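The protein record quoted in full:

***
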Amino acid sequence: MSIEGWVYRRGLSVAVAAAALCAAGWALSAHAVPRGASPPSGTVRAPAGADGVGAVMASGRSRADQASPGSAEGDADDPLPNGPPVLTWTSDGVRYRAVHHVARWNPATGRWEPISPDVTEAWQPGEDGFGVDGITAVAQAGEVLWTGTLAGAVAIGQPGGVWRRVDDGLPARTVSAIAPAPGADGARMAVVAFAGYGSATPGQPGHVFLTTDAGGTWRDLTGNLPDAPVTAARWTPTPDGPRLSVAEGEVWYTMAQPGRWSRDGHP
């Protein structure tokens, strides 16, 4: 089946500025100004979680074991003064939090326990995200997590497992939404949307990108969308199957076929 055939027969979860719970898992995002740059390669290890096993970033950069002052609830990962706000949500009765790494609340210990490495540029001198970067979008499909940051970094991994940077070929702008495919497909297939303007990153413009191989490659679906920040993405049911829609501010557009969009309520 072609990518187009899959797109119209499957659904993606919504990633917006608050937790959005659905059958495919949870997703959320926070809007921020465009920033970003391509990271150096490297292997890092996040602080160990409750099971004593740290998460490994197979490609990217991390603050690793450097901790900022903790919050009242025992967290060791607080937002930077000029960075994006903390993202918090609850899924299946479990509380989650994301700033520079994703953490899960352990009521037995009364602490937030990291389940990912630091996936930001916040502690990387010379990078656009140095001193300001933070997670702006998170989505989960089964045991697989997707993250996006203020600086445009996109990563995929499993709690306490191996994580990879997968943003080669994507714009170096703020990730505003991540929508993985439902079920097991979400481990390899997702849509990522970006804030900012394509004119700010002329080497790689675009706002909506699809991967079918866990971030190995990306297809630009932007097409005739106006060059404006995308603030949300969703799949809506139709008699012909789900259709992909994205929002630019208060205006929604629906994709008739890859790269061809129409404004909702207009031809």
Notes: The chain has one domain: 3-263.
